[in-house]
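Backbones bend. Shown next:

***
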Amino acid sequence: MNEPAGESLPGAGAGLFVPRRITGPVLAGVVPGQPRAVVHRAAELAYTLDVKLICAYVDITSYLTDEPHDGPVDDVEATSAGIRERLENTLDGTGIRWSFRTLSGDPAWALGQFAESADASVIVVGTRERVLGIRLEQMLVGSVAVELTHRQHRPVLVIPLPRPTTPGGTTD
């Protein structure tokens, strides 16, 4: 097992790196219909580090207020419930400590802010599907992963989505 040296190195000054245990949770950004690979990798990381996994969905269509809402909040609640159910099917019984949160606003900002408040060790996100509409959206509004790497100091782990397979079983 790796253990940091208990003594300082000769000639090492204040710049000596001493590793510390990672204790903050793994924060995974999740979206509806996302391949399970993103949550699987985030769960494996949380398990390996022996920390909690927090899965967070960011709703970009609403912002939380104290006023009662009509209409769109029902969609947010239904979307969140669907994501939670899928996470339960994936994570329950694995022994991994996990929770689910729904956030609102710009995804990179909301995930970064939540990571700060939860003192997350790492943020895990997936890449987007390789379809024309998504590529155009990324060109116009940018990538959540790229924005996260520029906005805060925590490591960001980007999980590539599996390449779609053709009916013959080959990848594109």
About this structure: The first helix runs from residue 37 to 49. The CA atoms of residues 53 and 98 lie 5 Å apart. The two ends are 42 Å apart (CA to CA).
